[in-house]
């Protein structure tokens, strides 16, 4: 009786939602059924849509949200009624290999569907007659993503592993596409385009992800005008030398990168880690860019407030000045090494405008809880609590300094760079922050800026002479000088070269224009940790909620992760696949999520009735799952291969989360994963 009542409640809710969407009252409906924390906590599995016979590699909602399209290794596309769990249309797309992308063409009445596949082809289908009406064969390698834009209903774009972004206009009589961006002209023949997205608020901007740590944002109008002017000056059949050297005009491209990744790239290559952007997407308001970086974490870039990576200024050894690095201008902290900020700065819009250590009672309680978690060596819990405090008191230097200490203890990928950023922020707010100054020197050392670390440590000793001969100071001084002594002359030359901005294959030569764009990259705003993205190169990360309040991502452990966007705190993990979750597509109007992966099914998730207390899909030990994924990302390649073959490795040994020997883990054992 109880189960029947719960199911009845779910069915009634589903029917109401379906009817409201059908009645086109989506705007008011969206405001009412907002993605909220209580809904996230009740999110559970509603249904499994069965119909494919292979991995489901892509999902796409239509504009109204009453249809869901899926594409699979079985080369079929299926159109679903997700609210009645019905298969409406199944068609063979004509592709000869795995489908990686499906998109409804905007303003086509949900009639036109575009697919891209591993057979290098892009097909356009008329769903009303179940026929393929256009077939494009211009790419020479696997097509990974299709993008559309509401402003241009007859136009779409494709990204493929031949390194080329192509543009299609169905109004043209020609059955050929136009090359919009050829990444091989920037990065050499080995570059592969993996993903792309068009800004929903300004359809003139296109984001592109490829192998390597850099994500590119292009102004489509400037590129079109430039190519048009170039073609008018030369024969249509001949590309000039100048055209090859200048594939895009100045100002048409802007790069984004997590500041530590270009520096860490040689280490990752040595450990057979592949850095590749597997998915890019814009926030609903178009002001943020989300990137799932394969081999690393999920990153959020703010397109309005632009922060240059600190490591780039260390590399370039900019002239000293004071202040911070904003809007592409050096206003702070770096010279031949690092110069510490000399004044208090509070940014506009922060909720508290004091760098004082005083906190209101409720935040003081949160800080104490974080300190207690730190004392128990629960680093992730401490980081989340400090982050919660920082979200409400963004100008409190102590919270930044304490969170930096927790990052340095945890040592996950990217933690030392986040700690460096926190130390610099703390010192901007309070130049006399002793611990932040010392931790900054340690972070520089851990990030392999050894000479800069020594300079920062010497500066620390000068400012705090009573600490100059402390045990911690002596230990760091010893570590730095040992590292400097061990460097050979050839290693010095390599570290001082611009290899950090060069090609990821040393055999390739990189044009000077590309080097300039890389050096002008902007840093991330937020980082989201816990998932693992090393096995597939189609793993998505998306905004969840009409305002993008949450971030969702799939993972190699078969789970999907949900974070609060602003605090970056992990709030939910759900088991979404027996093997790997690749796709997560939130409904355009309310709290409803479609996921897929290696299993040949599409899963639908929504808030379960309050009377439904059982949710077997919830991963209760979130910190343990996140820690296991960090180990997995840093595992020995043989162990990763066994994991991908379906074995479960317990107690991974040999490599800790930071790449060092992990003495705490037990001897590894291989166990068969149950079917």
Describe the structure.
The chain has 675 residues and is of the alpha+beta class. Among the domains are: 339-486, Tetratricopeptide repeat domain (Serine Threonine Protein Phosphatase 5, Tetratricopeptide repeat, Alpha Horseshoe); 634-672, no CATH class. Helix content is 31%, strand content 27%. It contains 19 helices and 34 strands. The strands form ten sheets. It has a four-stranded antiparallel sheet. The longest helix has 21 residues, at 2-22. It is globular. The two termini are 32 Å apart. The model is unreliable at 1-10, 24-32, 236-243, 316-337, 339-355, 497-507 and 650-675 (pLDDT under 50).
Question: Notable features of this structure?
Answer:
675 residues, alpha+beta, Serine Threonine Protein Phosphatase 5, Tetratricopeptide repeat, 4-stranded antiparallel β-sheet, 19 helices, 31% helix, 27% strand, disordered N terminus, disordered C terminus
How are the elements arranged and paired?
Blueprint: H1 2-22, H2 26-32, H3 37-41, E1 43-50, E2 56-61, E3 68-72, E4 76-81, E5 86-92, E6 99-104, E7 112-117, E8 122-126, E9 131-136, E10 143-149, E11 152-160, E12 164-169, E13 178-182, H4 184-187, E14 193-198, E15 205-210, E16 215-219, H5 220-233, H6 241-245, E17 253-256, H7 261-270, E18 276-282, E19 288-294, E20 298-302, H8 310-316, E21 325-326, E22 329-330, E23 334-335, E24 337-338, H9 361-375, H10 379-392, H11 397-410, H12 415-429, H13 434-446, H14 450-463, H15 471-486, H16 489-496, H17 512-519, E25 526-528, E26 541-544, E27 550-554, E28 559-564, E29 570-575, E30 581-586, E31 593-597, E32 601-607, H18 622-633, H19 637-644, E33 647-650, E34 669-672
Antiparallel strand pairs: 1-32, 2-3, 3-4, 4-5, 6-7, 7-8, 8-9, 10-11, 11-12, 12-13, 14-15, 15-16, 16-17, 18-19, 19-20, 20-25, 21-22, 23-24, 26-27, 27-28, 28-29, 30-31, 31-32, 33-34
